[in-house]
Amino acid sequence: MPAARPAHVVVVGGGISGLACAYFLHELSGGAVRLTVLEESPRLGGKLRLGEVGGVTVDLGAESLLARRPEAVELASAVGLGDDIVHPVTTAAALWSRGAMRPLPPGTVMGVPGDLRALAASRVLRPHELARAAADALMPAMPVERDVALGRFVAARMGRAVVDRLVEPLLGGVYAGAADELSLQAVVPTLAGALRRDGHLLAAARAARPADTDGPVFAGIFGGVGRLPSAVVAVAQARVRTGATVRGLTRTEEGWRVVVGSAAAPEAVEADGVVLAVPAPAAARLLADVAPAVAADLGHVEYASVAVVSLAWPTGYFPGAPRGSGFLVPPVERRKVKAVTWSSTKWAWTGAAAGDDLLVLRASVGRHREEADLQRSDADLVKAVVGDLRDATGARGVPVDAIVTRWGGALPQYAVGHLDRVDRIRRGVAAQPRLAVCGAAYDGVGVAACVADAAGAARQVLQALPRGATMGG
Ligand SMILES: Cc1cc2nc3c(=O)[nH]c(=O)nc-3n(C[C@H](O)[C@H](O)[C@H](O)COP(=O)(O)OP(=O)(O)OC[C@H]3O[C@@H](n4cnc5c(N)ncnc54)[C@H](O)[C@@H]3O)c2cc1C
After folding, report:
1. What residue ranges define each of the domains in the chain, with the CATH number in brackets?
2. Fewer C-beta within 10 Å: the chain N or C terminus?
3. What is the pTM of this model?
4. Which atom of ligand 1 is nearest to the CA of 407?
């Protein structure tokens, strides 16, 4: 490749991972790399999207950023949203369990209790279930050397009720996944680390939980986290093409040929480097010929689909203002709703927009392998959610507005062995010249983890480009 020509890097996928990667490619190269982002859908942002319910702007996908790790908040600040970073008014969540709203006990790690007194006070467990959980301290230590399913391990140490009533609802909220399938090491790495040192679960959870002094756990953006994609792309100075499905990837002497467009009218885009920031099934298809072993591993990452039902409900129909940020529902309750966020209580900016007369909330529905629930019509889904909300809160009447957002292939499932699989994928990809992958499929599903992964992918591709090609040529 002649050094005088600026390198061209193509980012496939315009979700937050792809856009953040374009941003880092631009920043780290000092603007010396020519960038193209190719996005299949008509809009950028992937699982970050704004909408409106009852005349109030809401997030239809991700709505909060983890603030305990810096990457997402730092990116938001770097692209000009620093003054709009906000924190939830409250993060006190409840569990709707056995017919009552109970406080989520403090001191848990993904639902695994580290404080028996707080657990007892929450009354989430019955006395015999609590005694069974406490038995962990009396059992022989079980240090975790190899990866295991989080749910099976917790059930063996503390009893099934801890899994059913605490771990499952927490996992349902983050992964929409099942505790008996998800990986201890990938889902709760701090707990896995503590368990390697001490094979007692209660002690490990106590050691792994974040200190109370670490500052706010979550952040948001005034006007919605869905503002982030357009702010990032404005700074990244990439050429962005939406409605551009990437169908093929082949090696050329100089780099890569990316085939984009319809099967009837394919177009070749030549690139020096490529970043695949798409979900695992799409990455598997694109790498099937180039790196079949990597594609096979990617093909094993399963996804859960979910729907978010956003509602605007007259506050007068609610018996008292909802308390806290929302509630989770254990799957053993056999309800349609798995989590509810009182958006206008949690976020001051949403509350101000909704006013005193309207409660804006969102309910999520759908778990891994329960896709049939999502095949119901929008009207049916809203009806089911409204029924659950009435039972949970005593609310009356009906919402004045509702939007159903379906997220097919929403959340990757980090099954047992996920970390080894990701390690193989990363090594296989690194063996290809100037190719990188990033996104929710690998080292964390949250926005902050995606941003961190995007930065790593940008560095990997830039380091592999000839120096002259990234130096303002
Ligand atoms: C309902 C919901 C709520 C969530 N809430 C939160 C939250 O509050 N906080 C949090 O931190 N995380 C949350 N998450 C998780 C987080 O939003 C996602 O994991 C993250 O946004 C994924 O970003 P991504 O860019 O890796 O993938 P995506 O957002 O999936 O982006 C991938 C993009 O690639 C495109 N694409 C796919 N195939 C091709 C192709 N062949 N050619 C071109 N383009 C292609 C897709 O159209 C898509 O736009 C939530 C997720 C969901 C679904």
Report:
1. 8-46+225-301+414-470 (3.50.50.60), 102-208 (1.10.3110.10), 304-412 (3.90.660.20)
2. N
3. 0.96
4. 53
